Structures are given as structure tokens and as C-alpha cells.
Amino acid sequence: MSRTPMPPQLPNGSFPASAAESLGLSQKQLRRDGIVTLSRGLRLPLHSTGTVAEHLRGYTELDPECCLSHGSAARVHGISLSKALEGDWRIHLARPGEKWKPRRRNVVGHQLTFKPGEVIELDGVRLTSPARTWLDLAHVMSIDDIIAAGDSIVVEHDENHPRPRQALATVDELKAIVAAHPGMRGVRKARLALDLVRVGADSPRETQMRLILLHAGLPEPTLNHVIFNEWGAPALWPDAAYVKERISLQYEGGHHGEAEQYKRDIRRQVLTERLGWREVRVHHDDLLGPRPEVVDKVRRALWTGRGLAANARRIGI
Question: In the prediction, which pLDDT does 242 show?
């Protein structure tokens, strides 16, 4: 005998078992192999294709006092995490004040004190704000990882950029949340990291590249710089740039080995040189080891760039 089909309104994400009747699910259907029990009273359709927020929404629906925090809130916001936290898929739930920590299977419970505006709702999920999430993560990440997380929050590009985006929070908002919680765990590291959070890094690797150059004693490159063509139109958007020396730094991740991306990279390099700039292409391996190759690449480019600039001034170009 064929099974009764699942109702079409089945959520594309987690949901409380108590909502089964309102969803048109019988108790028998609720116990089918196609519906997974995530935790006590919480279910997830096995083939759900929902977003991170949709998959985690049921946890906050079960308890109106709870919100997602730490790594779970970071995943919903799209905040950069350290490698250790990227591999930790436990659910982080927080209750405010003196209430009991949430206790569930695969859940890390927290007791946190929130100020107004530090818990928000996004896509139907209650979670800590981007700035508060960043501060909560500070005590479990290195300063470099905290900087990368901060960069991922404040990054923005205007409408002239090929990939416009709005910041999740501003640097001033990160400063304000640090000032609002002077005694909180991790706040001293967060305060130190704030001095190096910059607007314009699109990935943790770009932040890592910038920090490696700074740690090696090289000048800090400019982010969000635009190179204009001869008609005054935006033409190139380097990942980082040494503007005076006219050096463009481009970080190339794994996808840059793909045929079409490789062709785009070659066209970009040709255009960069035609506009009077030198492109330094940085690969993942250039960031590894005790003496990352990116340092020598950039040092040589700066030396050459300063020499060319001096010659140009000498002959009046």
C-alpha cells in the first residue's frame, strides 16, 4: 500500500514537532524515515534545501527566550570564522540573564546579558546582532581571526563595484559594542583587533594577506581602491593596492584554476598593465609557512615600483 504523501506545506527547514498538526502532518507521518529528529521536539525534513537560517529556525521557535549566538549566529550572518569554529557544527543557543542555559542534544548553551538592539530577528530567526556576535566570538579566536571576522562584517562596496554589498555593521558599531561591555570575556582582544579591522576585504584570505604584509614590516596596502581607465570610468578593483607605486594585489583562490576564470585573470592582467599598473598575483600557497612567499613577491614589486617612479620623476614623466 502506498504511503500518504507528505503535505506540500512542509517547511524547508527545521520545525517544532508541536507544529505538526498545523502543518497538516499526522503523528505517523512525523515519525517517517524522511523526517529527522534533531533534538527533543524538533524535526527536519531529510531532503531539506533550506538556508542556514531556515535549518536553525526551529531551535528558536521551540523556546521564545532563546536566540542563536556565537558560531551559529555567525553562520546565519555570513561572518568569517576561524578554522576550528568552521568545523564545529554544534548549535549555539543563549538565554538572557539569570535563566538556565539551554540544554539539548548537539547544543552548546550560553547565559548572556544583552543590551537593547543586541538580539535581532533575521529571516524569522532570533539571533545576536552582527556586532554582538563578533564580540561573543572574540574570546575563542586569535586576534588575526577576530580581525578577519571584523573585516567580513564591515566590508562594503558601492554600486559601481562588480559585486555591490552593504556592511553588516560599521567599524563605529564594533567600537560601540566593545565600549558597552568593558568587562566581558574577550573584550581586550576585540579592542586590539579593532585597530586593524578595515573596510574592503572580501574573504578571510585577503585579510590574511594584508596581515602577513604588516607583520613582515611592509606598508599597509589600500583596500577598496578603484583603477580608472583613460576615459575616467571604473575599470579594475584590486583586492589591495599600493597606490603610489601603482601596484595591484590580486588574491587568487581555488576557483582561479578554472578555464574561464583563468582567461578572465589574463584579460585583467593585460588591462592592468595597459593602464600603467603592475599586477601581483597571490595564490593560496603564497600565504603558507613561516616565511610566506607573498612577502618577497610584494617586496620585490615595491622595490621595482619605487625605482620606476623615481626614474619617471627624474625624466619628467
Answer: 97
